[in-house]
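May I ask for a single protein's sequence together with how it folds?
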Amino acid sequence: MRAYYTSPKGEKLLVFDYMSKGNLGTFLHARDPETPIDFPTRMKIAQGANKCKTAASNVIATAGALGYRAPKLSKLKKANTKTDVYSLGVIMLELLTGKTPGEAMNGLDLPQWVASIVKEEWTNEVFDLELMRAAPSIGDELLNTLKLALHCVDPSPSARPEVQ
């Protein structure tokens, strides 16, 4: 982020660098199928999101968008660390599944869909096929990352991890 501004009327403005190759959504969902994104790259993106080093359209603006927004944020009208943790969890699920959070799967949002698949013990079904090709070497990391992401999107804000 380059700058931010809050007007006397409470309007907010964030200024970020121009991203010539697009944003996170473009990188994940509108790329050539011949350009796979490996697990280490996806985890670097998650770490960047966690440290807020990723550009606005990647995290900050995205976090307020439908699909990334914590369920209680609409009622509270004010973000806090628990709503930020929820948004980070959705980004992690997006990185693991290759699915967009706004895309409904059987009438469920992304966190609900992943939780339902895991509950049915079909955990491997949630992962992006590109990640499954490397599963023998990264299986434990995939599962641990999935567990953390699901912890971040817990419906109860008090059950989500604390920000360190």
About this structure: The first strand starts at residue 3 and ends at 6.
